[in-house]
Structures are given as C-alpha cells and as structure tokens.
Amino acid sequence: NEELWVQSVLEMPKRRDILAIVLIVLPWTLLITVWHQSTIAPLLAVHKDDGGDSRRDLAAGLDSKEYCLSDRDIVEVVRTEYVYTRPPPWSDTLPTIHVITPTYSRPVQKAELTRLANTLLHVPNLHWILVEDSQRRTPLITRLLRDTGLNYTHLNVETPRNYKLRGDMRDPRIPRGTMQRNLALRWLRETFNKNNSQPGIVYFADDDNTYSLELFEEMRSTRKVSVWPVAFVGGLRYESPKVNAAGKVYGWKTVFDPHRPFAIDMAGFAVNLRLILQRSQAYFKLRGVKGGYQESSLLRELVTLNDLEPKAANCTKV
Amino acid sequence: YVYSRPPPWSHTLPTIFVITPTYTRPVQKAELTRLANTFLHVQNLHWVVVEDSPRRTNLVSNLLEKAGLNFTHLNVETPKSLKVGLSWIPSHTPRGTLQRNLGLHWLRDSFSNTPPPEGVVYFADDDNTYSLELFEEMRYTRRVSVWPVAFVGGLRYESPKVSPAGKVVGWKTVFDPNRPFAIDMAGFAISIKLILEKPQASFKLEGVKGGYQETSLLKDLVTMDGLEPKAANCTKVLVWHTRTERPTLVNEGKRGFTDPRVEV
User: Fold this and answer.
1) A303: closest CA among A259, A258, A270?
2) What's the CA gap between A218 and A186, in Å, rounded?
3) Cis amide linkage into residue B148, ω under 30° from 0
4) Where does Mn(2+) bind (chain A) (predicted)?
5) What is the per-residue pLDDT for B87?
6) Cα–chain-centroid distance for residue A26?
7) pLDDT of residue A39 exceeding 60
8) Cα→Cα distances A38→A21, A35, A42, A54, Å
C-alpha cells in the first residue's frame, strides 16, 4: 500500500507538470507562429536581400503594408508578382560578361563610377572587375562596390610614377590603364581553369564612357573577338569596322591611321574568356606603344582580321 | 522571378516627376541614354523630357519609346533673341528655362481637373549624375526639400546650412551665399501639391542675375525655414553637377566622313 501510494504520488506531479508545461508553452508556440508568418511574407517577396534599407524597400515590388498572409497567399504572391531586383537574378544559361574597368582617384571618380554602376545593374550575369590605379584599395571604392549589390572583384595596382618629374605624374610612356587591365587579365587566368569552361566574355569599359544596355547583349554571343562602332573617337562622330556583304571585317573606317592592324577603340571589342585563357601570354604592351596601337598590341596575339565577328547590325549601329 | 525594367508601378508610392530640358548636340543621345539607365531603377518615376526645338525629334522620340520609362515628350524652342550669348545685356535667359516652365505648365494642365497624385517635381539636367538614393530622399517631400550638390559654385560641393534642430538656416557657398536660395537646380525638389497650389510660380525668363534662377522660382513657393533638409541633414552628397566634354569632330572635315544616317 505504501509503495502504491509512493508511486501514485510520484506520478501525479508528473501529470501536473506536463499540464503546466503545455499551458506555458502553448501561448509561446502560437505567438511564434504568428510572428513567423507576418515576417516571412515580405521576406519571400524580396529576392536577394543584401542589406541596405532603401534597396529592400525597392526590391519588394509588393505593397509593403501587406503582412499577415496565409501560407497559400504567400505562395501565390511569389508566383504571380513580378519582382524588381537589382541586379537581375543570375542565370545558369547566360555567359558571364566580365567587365574590366581601370579607375583612378580624382574628384569626379565617385560620380563616374556611380552612373556606370547604374547602367551595369541592369545587365544579367555581369561581373565587374574594378582595378584601381593606387597603392591600396581605397575605402571609397570598397564602399561603393559593396553598396551597388553588383557581382564584383576589387583589385589595384599602381602605375609607377615618373621620378624625374616632380608632382603626381605617372610614367607617360605607359598608356593609362594598361597595368590595371593587364592585372585583371592575369586575375582571370589565375581564377578560371581553361579546361573547365564557364562561358564568359571579357570587355574593357573605361569609367567615363557611356554604354547602352543593348551593347551587352550584342557582345554576349562572342565566339572569339567581336567588334562594333564607337562614337566620339578618332576625331569623328564614330569609328567603325568595315564589313563586307559576307559579314566579314575587312578594314577600318577611320581617318586616324586606318592601317593599324586593329584600328579600333578599347570600347569597341570584346573577347571570349576561353580565348583569353588559351592565349595566356597575351597582354597589352606596356611600353613602346605608339598612340592608337594599344588595342592592336593585345588583339594581334588573339585573333586575325578574318576571325572578327561584327556586331550591332553588321556595324551599322552605334 | 522576372526582372522588369522599370520596376512595376506602385499604387502607394509617391510619384517622382523628373523634368529634363534637352537640346540637340553630338552627345545628346549618350547623355539621355545613361540618364535613362539610371531612371530605369527608380520606382514610380515619370520622365518629362522637354526639347529645345521647333519639333519633337525622332532621336528623342525613339529613345523614349525604347527605354520603357513612363514619359511625356514636350518641346519648345528658345527664341534666338533669348539665347545665351546673343544678348549684350549682362543678365540673360539661362539655358533650359523655357523648357522647365513648359514642364511645370504641363503638370498644372494635367492635374487641373483630376486629383493630383502624391509626389514631387525634380529638375534633372541631362548631363548631371544622380545616385539612386537621391530619389528615395526626395520622394516624401512635403513642401520643398533640399540637399547638397557636388561640383557647383567652384566647390567640391555646395550645401544648405542645417541647424541642430534640423532647420535650414543658411547656405554653405562661396559664391553669393546671401542669395535667398543659394542652391543649384539639382539640389531641391518641390511637392506636386505646392506646384498646383501656386500656379503663378515659374522660373523668371529675363533679367535674372547669374545664380538667381533657382531663387526666381523658389521665392514664390517657400521660405527658408519651410525647407526640409534631406541626405542626412545635408551631410551626404547624392548628386553631382558633372559636365560633359565636347567631343572633337575635326576629322569629319567639310563634307563629313561618317554616314550621317547612322545616329550618334
């Protein structure tokens, strides 16, 4: 009898404890469920939440006042609403465009990079390789790149100064941006395996030019090296490759030295990444390059005139 | 997820009416292209492009159609007598005045019989640089909001002076800081409501001293203590008064080397 009594005494507190636990835990469970639902709705609507309040507000193309949706509503919202994100979601099928931009500190640098970024933010599968002409990567650029949300790589290399002259004079024998572009090429070769072919295109974009969105779609289909007209170079409204009826490049429509092997501006061509990786010794020549021959110094190691692919409606559009 | 450009219109966000005067010159298409590329990120933006021309040009029409932005395309030609450089009088009509006024007129016309949307009016010249953050700063303007502008007045930036209480008390400029509104065109936005409340407020056409254009409009709309400082109480620069170099076209020669049918 005593044993039974002891046993039942031991059991009863157990049941009471269980009841107490349930009564305490249940309201918390309910609270957590409701909180979870109200926060998950806007979270599901936001595609890539990389932080930054203003962007989060923009990214939700939905009315931000719509909380408290049921599970079914959340799923439908995701399916039927177009969501604006910046940059566009990465695609598994589009070749990546690696945009190499050399840059240097001067008052308008931030403005130039801001408006360039605003353009690049529309282009899917874009990887921005920004190379500073500086001793160290600057906080200004670091912050700017992070705040854009773009896929990027931040490099730097300082063009040696000409010690003979006083002041901030870079070596004038090295065209501006050359070391920076070459560093980016080296980075690509060190980062990507030429056998593991991730489709990619390499484009050199200076930070003070203007680029249409159409241009990036034109260059995406580059097999070796593609070319197109560029406005406001060579003292003309535009310079352009000459394209014959068969769609092959056979010359250059320029006034300034049209007999250069590649009479084309830096902004007028793109190279398939595979080719960059295969011809791993091809770089822009550093010294002894005549004015206007920088592009040729690289392109002659990569391709012949015959292999060039004309874009922009057979080079009739700027 | 579908990427759309511009972002879908929202029924709750205030609209930003951006008035841009523009004129034909070689870099026009480039300027408008990169401007459009910026605006295409901004929700509920309506671009009012006003050409300084006798007729709306194909270049601008096609650009606006292709961009996909919400837009209105206007034009008004500045009479030659008013154009800069031809008048011997020291004061003159600054460029873009007639066009900006037409933009204001269109706005007042459009909402004369219908209730206006919540929103602001912003004057954006086609060669400046705008951060995306700027548009979110100006979106909730009650009367007139102000912020710093880079590369004006011979400074890294000009800025309103803001008291600890968050009120504008003056202007941090070297050039004529005693102007009623020592601020650049790109440094303020006006609520639509206020524009419609004061239908007589426009930019003064003639007899405007250099640097007083903005004042000629703002004095009829607001007083200094009614200004709303943005950009972290005017401590951040979100807009740059950049200028575009004129391209050298010497090699075109007399007859023209390039195909004039190719639009640049």
Assistant:
1) A270
2) 25
3) no
4) 208
5) 47
6) 48
7) no
8) 26, 5, 8, 20
- Start-to-end CA distance of chain A, whole Å, equals 102
Q: Is A34 helix (H, G, I), strand (E, B) or coil?
A: helix
**Is the pLDDT reported for residue A146 higher than 90?**
yes
Instruction: Identify the sign of the CA torsion A162, A167, A168, A172.
Output: negative
B137 with B111: CB under 8 angstroms? no
Strand, coil or helix: A216: helix
Probe site for chain A from B32, B246, B251 (most A CB atoms < 10 A): B251
Q: Please indicate whether, in this complex, the C-beta atoms of A61 and B40 are within 8 angstroms of each other.
A: no
Distance, in Å, from the CA atom of B97 to the CA atom of B77, rounded to the nearest integer, reads: 11
Q: Is B34 close to A119, i.e. CB distance below 8 A?
A: yes
- Residues of chain A with Cβ-Cβ distance to B263 below 8 Å are 318
- Note if the bond before B160 is cis, omega within 30 degrees: no
Per-residue buried b or exposed e for B77-113, using 16+ beta carbons within 10 Å of the residue's own CB: ebeeebeeeeeeeeebbbbbbbbbbbbbebbbeeeee
Residue A135 near residue A99 (C-beta atoms within 8 A): no
Domains of chain A from N-terminus onward: 96-227+266-304 (3.90.550.10)
- Please give the Cα distance from A177 to A157 (Å, whole number): 10
Q: ipTM score of the complex? A: 0.95
Each residue of B37-53: pLDDT tens digit? Answer: 999 999 999 999 999 99
User: In this structure, are strands B119-123 and B15-22 parallel, antiparallel, or unpaired?
Assistant: parallel
Question: Is a pLDDT exceeding 70 seen at residue B203?
Answer: yes
The reply, when asked if residue B241 is annotated as ligand binding, is yes
Q: pTM for the whole thing? A: 0.84
Which amino acid makes up residue B88?
W
Q: Give me A3's structure tokens.
A: 């044993």
Which residues of B lie inside 8 Å of A (Cβ-Cβ)? Answer: 1-8, 10-12, 26-27, 30-31, 33-34, 37-38, 40-41, 43, 129-133, 136, 150-151, 156, 240, 242, 247-252, 257-258, 262-264
Quote the CA–CA distance of B148 and B167 in Å, as a whole number: 14
Is CATH 3.30.420.40 the classification given to domain B15-252? no
What are the boundaries of each domain within chain B?
15-252
Catalytic residue at A76?
no
Contact B144, B189 (CB under 8 A): yes
Give residue A125's identity as a one-letter amino acid code.
N
CB B7 within 8 A of CB A54: no
